[in-house]
Specification:
alpha+beta; 9 helices
């Protein structure tokens, strides 16, 4: 879990003293399982639920160097982030950054937020800045809509955030729970496309119709009185039913922007097949195109995934991955 007991403003003068010779960070991917109130009928917009994953992450390390050098996947995205952070935090960019793994970009797993937080956490520890995760997120403009990525970097597990109000800097975490150890998530990737992001995403939110207040109230009630108790009682069926209902509601609302409840018709077909095999919590993470579902039991999840690979072998751009929930946040290692 990433924590910091010291706080400082980004406007504070900082003495440029390197605290450690090497800092490494692991930032976990996340499933974004849906928004609760897209129109903010009671004054707070968005609010969302999501889960941290173990098997997919951004792993990077930072050491000192004569000049900025970045190697590994997503190096261009990392370079923009490093330049902005070093300038804002008033620290040197004479660094060597090695990216061992990076969350795939724009497929619904939180790649941008986790890259920003990973680099921010690394610089924070490398220079001894004393910043919290929330301060790093604010500096990098993360959490403008969802707070799930920030929440899973802080603590992992299942997170519900409270959306944005008039005074919100980053969406607060309202609930955090460990996910039962035997639960598995089957992810379905479509390698041909990416979900909406950047200006397209911003424009899509502007053009969406109003989200009904009554439906937002129903989703809140379902989540609070059925979904979260089901996690606490290791009841994947009732949890899955709540997530599926939330996903259908939000997916139908997004359908005009993404071409249907699912961005990818092939992923949609795979999700329908998986549901017939007994999978629950059927949905698409963020703008997709990645789909997800949940299975109780490691062996059963692996068996169904193997069957899915055979059943959809003719869709050569689809791939299936079994993932477990990560019940701890991002890791920061020194040395």
């Amino acid at each position: 879990m990433y924590t910091s007991s010291n706080f400082c403003s980004t406007n504070t003068a900082i003495t440029l003293i390197v605290q450690h010779s090497k800092v490494s960070v692991i930032a976990p991917a996340r499933l974004h399982m849906g928004f609760i109130d897209l129109s903010g009928s009671l004054g707070r917009h968005f609010g969302s639920i999501g889960v941290a994953l173990n098997e997919i992450s951004t792993n990077l390390s930072v050491t000192g160097a004569e000049q900025l050098t970045i190697t590994g996947p997503a190096a261009q995205r990392a370079k923009k982030c490093v330049s902005m952070l070093c300038k804002t935090l008033h620290v040197s960019d004479k660094l060597n950054i090695t990216i061992e793994t990076a969350i795939p970009e724009h497929v619904g797993l939180g790649s941008g937020t986790q890259m920003s937080l990973a680099i921010g956490a690394a610089l924070n520890e490398f220079y001894g800045l004393g910043l919290s995760v929330r301060e790093i997120a604010a500096v990098t403009d993360r959490g403008l809509r969802s707070g799930i990525g920030i929440g899973v970097f802080e603590r992992g597990g299942l997170v519900v955030d409270g959306g944005r109000g008039e005074r919100t800097i980053t969406p607060p975490v309202l609930a955090h729970m460990d996910v039962p150890n035997d639960w598995r998530f089957i992810l379905v990737f479509d390698q041909r496309g990416q979900g909406l992001h950047g200006q397209q995403e911003i424009q899509a939110f502007k053009e969406l119709p109003p989200f009904p207040q009554q439906e937002a109230a129903r989703l809140c009630y379902l989540l609070l009185m059925q979904g979260l108790p089901a996690v606490a009682e290791n009841d994947i069926v009732n949890f899955g039913d709540v997530i599926s209902q939330l996903q259908r509601s939000v997916g139908e609302h997004f359908s005009s922007a993404q071409g249907g409840v699912f961005t990818s018709p092939e992923v949609a077909a795979a999700m329908q097949w998986l549901e017939r095999q007994g999978a629950v919590a059927i949905g698409q993470t963020s703008w997709g195109p990645t789909g997800f579902c949940a299975i109780d039991g490691v062996a059963l999840a692996e068996s169904i995934t193997d069957q899915a690979r055979k059943a959809f072998a003719h869709f050569d751009k689809l791939s299936f991955v079994v993932a477990s929930a990560r019940n701890s946040g991002g890791d920061v290692f020194v040395g």
